[in-house]
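B., you asked whether I could sanity-check this one before it goes into the benchmark set. Here's the sequence:
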Amino acid sequence: MPSSLFNLIVGGLIRKMKFCANLSFMFTEGKTILERYALAKDAGFKAVESGFPLGHTLEEVRAAKESAGVQQILINLKTGDLSKGELGVTAIPDKEAIFRENLRETINYAKAVGARKLHIMAGRLENATAKNWEIFENNLRYAAEELKKENIVGVIEPINQYSVPKYFLSDFDRAVDLIKRINSPYIRLQLDIFHLQHIAGDLTYNIKKLMPYVGHVQIAQVPNRNEPDSAGEVNYEYILQVIREAGYDDWVGLEYKPLGNTKAGLKWIQNYGYSL
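And here's what the prediction gave me:
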C-alpha cells in the first residue's frame, strides 16, 4: 500500500486519507513558491497544491516540482494582481477575453506540472447583479469545454466574506445550482471546510449534502485558519471521518497558516492517527 495512505481499522472498517500541502499557505517563511516544493517533500508530503505561481515561468515551476519529486494535485487560475486584491475575473463584466487568456495560460501550467484540478476563482465585486451571475455561468460553461479537452477538472469555491470581503461566490447552494445547470463532470465544487463553517455551519449535514458535487476538499481551523488541531470551532478528528464516510477518497488540501514552524506543526497528523 502506498505510504501516502494511512489505514485506520475500527470495527472492521478501513478508512484512508491523503493530504497535500498548499504551497501558498505553508512553508512560506521567506521562501519563494519554487523553494516550497522541496520543503514540502522534506516534510514528508507526496503531493502539493498551489495558487498560480505569478512571476515564475512554466519551465521554472516544472523544474522545481520535478526536482522535489512530488505530485501536483491542483493549481489556481491566474488571478491578476494580488497586491490590488484581484482574485480572478470570471464574474467580472467585459473581462471575458482576459478570462479565456488566463484559463489557457493556467491550463498550460497545469499540464506542465501534471495537475488534474484547476480552481476557477470568481473575482471580487462591489455589488453583484444578475448580469454577473450570467457572465460567471457563461465563463464556466466555456471552461468546462476547454477543460474537457485536457481531462482537467475545474472547481469553484464559495469563500466567506469575513476572510475575503466582496468575493463574488460565497453561497454553497448557488454554487451547487450552477454545477447542476452546467451539468459537466469538468465543473465541480471545491469544499473548503474553513469556508463552509463560516458561511453555513452545520458541518455534518452539509458535508453529506454537498459531497455528490465535490471535486476537491481543503481544511483549516476556524476562525484563524491555523492547524486543524489548534484552538477553534471545528473538531477535525471527527470531521475528517465524516468526509471519508461521505464517500470522499481523494486528496485533502491543507490550506492553513501554520502557527509556527510548518514542519513541527504537522504533528497533528500523527496525533489524529494518520501519516503522510
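One thing to flag: DSSP finds nine helices and ten strands in the chain. Otherwise nothing jumped out at me.
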